[in-house]
């Protein structure tokens, strides 16, 4: 609930500190005393649009602070924590309004945006006036109120979860479809490329081996003649080897005659013969390698051309073509898997949509049941509020599927028998709207209501029994939530537990005017209610009537 309100330099208020209690608190005063200024200042602390004109003349800035005490786990704490605000203890909402039009917002002395301030404040306070579209007359809140009245939080959460699952699966299915369609567009190319590379069957290090073999074969044609000439000289008809062998044998037969002279020569001849033999073997080997089938060179060149053409075609080094073939095969497998995954996702989407539709039907049926109960409860409140011929009804129509189901909910009324019903805001007059709104809040007070409700002159134009009925309902409402009411009706004022009187007083020797707010005790309350009954001149009869009102209110 609201514990305290501090205002500095806002319009006619220079300094004001108010403390509030539970139950019904009334604010009264003459027209123009500053009641609307007080509510404007409070609204500023709750995130209302700022205006430099709110700052008291001659001051650089104004400031409003509102302090709240809340039960643990209250939704306002979650709204604050979502903005990384420390919520130990209660919540203090503060707004600084600068004279140049700029403003700053704080929660528990942590800077927040005005939008962030409003997100927290809407969980704390509701302000209702005769044409206040921020509260019950705003049709965007009606579905939420029906859910709160019917205790349908769980069913609504199920629908939201089901809707979120449908959205998530549809998004995943769309992404998979995009991937599959892209793969489909490339599928023919992938199949052709994969088949071509598989058929090519590139071997590891095949290209450099073929290149080397080709180079050898091409050079062999140029040196083959020289190799044959060398072969003829070393091992052919004119080879020195037979003569050298014969000479070596003759020397060996004479070696015993002159060993010292013959041994070195014999060894040299033997080495020469070995060298010539080795040379002949090398020439023979070279000639064998140089001797190739002409078609082999052609085959090697064709193979190299095919390998290198594939490399150019796929912009890949020849040695990497096998890995590319594997990739194409994997892409084709992924396409097949994607097709299967898409089929599975399509089925999942259909199943999720069916689950959502079922949950939405359950929620819709529960809403209709809750709406019927709400309509009956509100209509029961209308007679004492002098709306005997009026009727309240909840209009539920089908709308496009969404996170809150398929129901569009709007509160309708019929103000007189035989007239056409219509939306609450369009059909009810100012006074009727206030009474419909009060009846609604009495019924909804403990379900989906903020902990502090502010009613701004909803009893305007009401008097006698109607005003008394409104006072009774405000008091009943205040037994469950904190209620602040600005009123001109003495019947309403008499039922309050706390009473503030708002007045304008001259200050600085009459040079300026300031709004003052005074908490009234019992005698002062009786005098104020007598003033509300009698007007400018308070009579003993008015004081007696005020006493009777206070006594009857308990």
List the helices and strands and how they pair.
Elements: E1 2-10, E2 13-19, E3 24-28, H1 35-45, E4 61-68, H2 75-81, E5 91-98, E6 103-107, E7 110-112, H3 114-121, E8 125-128, H4 142-149, H5 153-200, H6 206-235, H7 241-254, H8 259-290, H9 294-313, H10 321-382, E9 391-402, E10 405-414, E11 422-423, H11 424-427, H12 430-444, E12 452-456, H13 464-478, E13 482-486, H14 490-493, E14 498-507, E15 512-519, H15 522-534, H16 540-552
Parallel strand pairs: 3-13, 3-14, 8-12, 12-13
Antiparallel strand pairs: 1-2, 1-4, 4-5, 5-6, 6-7, 9-10, 10-11, 14-15
- Unreliable runs, pLDDT <50, ≥5 residues? none
Shape, please? elongated
The oligomerization state is single chain
Widest beta sheet: strand line-up:
2-1-4-5-6-7
> Distance N terminus to C terminus?
24 Å
Main sheet: strands, sense, barrel: 6 strands, antiparallel
Q: What CATH architecture label of one domain applies?
A: 3-Layer(aba) Sandwich
Mean pLDDT over all positions: 87
Count every beta strand, where a strand is a DSSP E run of 2 or more residues.
15
Name of the CATH first level of one domain: Alpha Beta
Beta-strand share of residues: 15-25%
Total helices: the number is 16
What structural class should be given to the helix and strand makeup?
Answer: alpha/beta
Gyration radius, rounded: 51 Å
Helix content: 40-55%
CATH topology value of one domain: Rossmann fold
- Superfamily (CATH H level) name of one domain: P-loop containing nucleotide triphosphate hydrolases
């Amino acid at each position: 609930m609201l514990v305290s309100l501090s205002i500095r330099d806002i319009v006619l208020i220079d300094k004001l500190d108010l403390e509030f209690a539970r139950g019904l608190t009334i604010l009264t005063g003459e027209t123009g005393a500053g009641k609307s200024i007080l509510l404007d200042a409070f609204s500023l602390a709750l995130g209302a649009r700022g205006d430099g004109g709110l700052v008291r003349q001659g001051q650089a800035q104004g400031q409003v602070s509102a302090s709240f005490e809340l039960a643990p786990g209250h939704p306002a704490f979650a709204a604050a924590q979502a903005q990384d605000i420390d919520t130990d203890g209660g919540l203090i909402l503060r707004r600084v309004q600068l004279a140049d039009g700029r403003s700053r917002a704080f929660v528990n002395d942590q800077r927040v945006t005005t939008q962030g301030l409003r997100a927290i404040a809407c969980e704390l306070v509701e302000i209702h006036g005769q044409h206040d579209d921020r509260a019950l007359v705003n049709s965007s809140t009606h579905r939420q109120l029906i859910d709160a009245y019917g205790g349908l939080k769980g069913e609504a959460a199920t629908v939201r979860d089901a809707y979120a699952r449908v959205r998530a699966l549809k998004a995943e299915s769309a992404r998979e479809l995009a991937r599959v369609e892209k793969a489909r567009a490339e599928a023919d190319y992938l199949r052709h490329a994969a088949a071509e590379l598989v058929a090519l069957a590139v071997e590891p290090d095949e290209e450099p081996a073929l290149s080397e073999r080709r180079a050898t074969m091409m050079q062999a044609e140029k040196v083959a003649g020289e190799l044959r000439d060398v072969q003829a000289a070393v091992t052919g008809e004119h080879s020195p080897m037979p003569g050298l062998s014969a000479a070596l044998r003759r020397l060996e037969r004479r070696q015993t005659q002159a060993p010292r002279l013959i041994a070195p020569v014999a060894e040299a001849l033997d080495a020469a013969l070995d060298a010539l033999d080795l040379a002949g073997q090398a020439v023979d080997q070279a000639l064998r390698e140089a001797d190739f089938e002409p078609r082999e060179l052609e085959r090697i060149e064709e193979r190299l051309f095919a390998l290198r053409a594939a490399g150019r075609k796929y912009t890949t080094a020849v040695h990497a073509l096998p890995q590319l073939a594997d990739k194409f095969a994997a892409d084709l497998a992924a396409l097949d898997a994607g097709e299967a995954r898409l089929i599975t996702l399509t089925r999942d989407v259909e199943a999720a949509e069916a689950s959502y539709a079922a949950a939405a039907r359950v929620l819709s049926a529960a809403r209709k049941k809750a709406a019927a109960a709400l309509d009956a409860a509100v209509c029961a409140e209308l007679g004492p509020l002098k709306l005997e011929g009026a009727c309240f009804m909840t209009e539920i129509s089908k709308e496009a599927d969404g996170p809150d189901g398929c129901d569009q909910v709007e509160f309708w009324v019929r103000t007189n028998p035989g007239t056409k019903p219509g939306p609450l805001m369009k059909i009810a007059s100012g006074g009727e709207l206030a009474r419909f709104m009060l009846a609604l809040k009495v019924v909804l007070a403990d379900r989906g209501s903020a902990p502090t409700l502010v009613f701004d002159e909803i009893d305007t134009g009401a008097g006698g029994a109607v005003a008394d009925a409104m006072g009774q309902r405000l008091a009943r409402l205040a037994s469950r939530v904190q209620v602040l009411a600005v009123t001109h009706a003495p019947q309403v004022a008499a039922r309050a537990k706390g009473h503030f009187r708002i007045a304008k007083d001259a200050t600085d020797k009459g040079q300026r005017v300031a709004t003052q707010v005074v908490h009234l005790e019992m005698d002062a309350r009786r005098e104020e209610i007598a003033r509300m009954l009698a007007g400018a001149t308070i009579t003993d009869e008015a004081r007696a009537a005020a006493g009777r009102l206070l006594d009857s209110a308990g």
